Amino acid sequence: MALNPNLYPNGMPVAFVNEMFVLIRDGVEFEVDKIAGASGGTVKGKGKIYLSNIRMVFVADKPTGNFIAFDMPLLYVHGEKFNQPIFHCNNISGLVEPVVPEGQPAALYSTHSFKILFKEGGCGTFVPLFFNLIKSVRQYNQQFSAAASAPPDPLRAAETPVDEMMRCAYVDPNDPTRIFLQQPTSDAQLRRRTYHPQSEQS
Questions:
Q1: Confidence bin at 7 (pLDDT 50/70/90)
Q2: pLDDT digit string, tens, across residues 116-142
Q3: What's the angle, vertex CA 131, arms to CA 126 and CA 154, rounded to 5?
Q4: Which residue from 165, 144, 146, 201 is spatially nearest to 51, judged by alpha carbons?
Q5: For residue 22, what are the contacts with CB-CB under 8 A and spacing of at least 6?
Q6: Are residues 92 and 127 in contact, defined by beta-carbon separation less than 8 angstroms?
Q7: N or C: where does the chain have the smaller number of CB atoms within 10 Å of the terminal CB?
Q8: Do the beta carbons of residue 60 and residue 45 sit within 8 Å?
């Protein structure tokens, strides 16, 4: 994960090289723990989720303290589960490993637990796309992870083919999720090459 990733003024995350945005989902509530400076370490907020072939980004409608957005690389997400409680709204819960800055000891960073709550409308478009995408990313990157002892490069997920998945997605009329049929226009010069700003090359 990465706290407060780069955003455009309209709230759209600044893309990585070869990143393809799959969908945007408004009207979600998001919870994540172990956030420095947050009361009790947990942050809750309302906003939107952007899902791409590399990551999932929550962008808050209103900042909570220093919390504006939260970036979760798909290769670092695990233990994800779709929950349908009887008396509460449907949600996805899971764990995400931190993106440790270069040169920093990994022991200083711990796993976050997160929850995405669908309080406005259905989730019949979002949920299948999310699980299919995360499954494809894992399968496509299995060949690399078998030999590697270090955590995988989160940007390796960009190599996962997602075009067909987007074209064949089921659209639930009760789900306000919007699928990107065309990528948002952005300045190619601003596209990021790494999660670590100090080592980025222009």
A1: very high
A2: 999 998 899 999 999 999 998 888 877
A3: 105
A4: 165
A5: 51, 52, 53, 129, 133, 162, 165, 166, 179, 180
A6: yes
A7: C
A8: yes
Please report which helix (H) or strand (E) contains residue 149, including its range.
Answer: none
Instruction: DSSP for 168-185, please give it.
Output: T----TT---EE-SSPPP
**Cβ atoms of residues 19 and 82 within 8 Å:** no
**Which residue in the block uniquely carries the two structure tokens 């065309």?**
182
Smallest CA-to-CA distance from 102 within 35, 194, 192 is with 194
| Terminal alpha carbon distance of the chain | 23
Which of helix, strand or coil describes residue 29?
strand
d(CA 67, CA 168): 35
pLDDT for the residue 141: 79
Tokens representing 2 are 């990465």
d(CA 194, CA 12): 18
Question: CA 13 to CA 9: how far, in whole Å?
Answer: 9
Which amino acid is residue 80, in one-letter code? E
Based on its alpha-carbon atoms, the radius of gyration of the chain, rounded to whole angstroms, reads 16
Amino acid at 83: N
In tens, the pLDDT along 138-167 reads: 888 776 665 555 667 777 766 666 766 666
Tokens found for residue 100: 């440790």
Scanning the structure block, which residue is given the tokens 């942050």?
A: 43
pTM: 0.85
Tally of residues, the chain = 202
